[in-house]
Every structure is written in structure tokens, then in C-alpha cells.
Amino acid sequence: MSRLADLRTWLAAWVAYLRVGDVLVLALGLGASAASALVLWQGGAPDKAVIKAGGRVFAEVDLSAPRIVEVPGPIGTTRIEIQPGRARVAADPGPRQYCVRQGWLHSAGAVAICAPNEVSLSLSGRNAAYDSLNY
Question: Cβ distance 65 to 85 under 8 Å?
Fold first, then answer.
């Protein structure tokens, strides 16, 4: 209980120093940060999925129709599921399943890499704001 009382005392002392202008500046700063995050972090709608195996392009698949792509790799077959506007690695023979756990990729520039099997899935579009490797 004393920690909570100390926190309340400290907070009350700190708030006593704030003025109306300080509160306005804080509110405007938070609002600008939230607005820029919403606007700038949109990767855009993806047009196609680029599937690579062994560092080479295995397939470029349009994201308009559902399908499953089987990609052979050094330790087995990676299964990639395509749905309209999104894609995911559905199954991979790798031991840790990081690319499978990544789930559905929705925005242009998103990437899932299955390193042990040397397979990668990336979504490309007209206006990819960033890619997940360089972000």
C-alpha cells in the first residue's frame, strides 16, 4: 500500500507543475505521433506473392485467387497458401517453424523466411512503404 501512496504523492506533485500550455503540447504531440503511425505504417495492398527457393525466384503468384503452392527445398517441401489479398507459409519441414508462426502476410513488403529449407515468401505491391527485413 505504501508504494501506491508514494506513487500518488509523486504524481500529484508532478501534475501540479503542469500548465494548460504543457497539456496542449503533450496532447498535440501524442496526436501527431498516432496520426503519423497510422498513415506511414500502411504497407499498401499487395499485388502478388514472390516465392523464392535457393535464392532464385520459384514463382510469382497473383493474389486474386486461392491456391496452394508446393516448393521443394533441401530438407523437404514447403507448402504456401494463397488467399485473395494475403498469403502464408502453411507448412514447412524446418525445426523451429518461424515462418509458419508468422501467419498471414497482408501488406506489400511483408516477408516470411524459412531459412533451413532456403524458401522465402514476400508480398509485393505498387506502394510498399517498407519491407520487414530492412525495417
Answer: no
Q: Residue 101 belongs to what domain range?
A: 48-124
CA atoms 69, 72, 73, 76: torsion sign = positive
Task: Assign 3-class secondary structure to the chain.
Answer: CHHHHHHHHHHHHHHHCCCHHHHHHHHHHHHHHHHHHHHHCCCCCCCEEEEEECCEEEEEEECCCCEEEEEEECCEEEEEEEECCEEEEEECCCCCCHHHHCCCECCCCCEEEEHHHCEEEEEECCCCCCCCCCC
Residue 31 lies in a domain: yes
Contact of 46 with 125, CB cutoff 8 Å = yes
Query: Is residue 104 a contact partner of residue 63, using CB atoms and an 8 Å limit?
Result: no
CATH label of the domain that carries residue 54: 2.60.320.10
- Give the tens place of pLDDT for each residue, 64-106: 999 999 999 999 999 999 999 999 999 999 999 999 999 999 8
pTM across the whole model? 0.65
Reading the block at residue 78, the C-alpha cell is 514447403
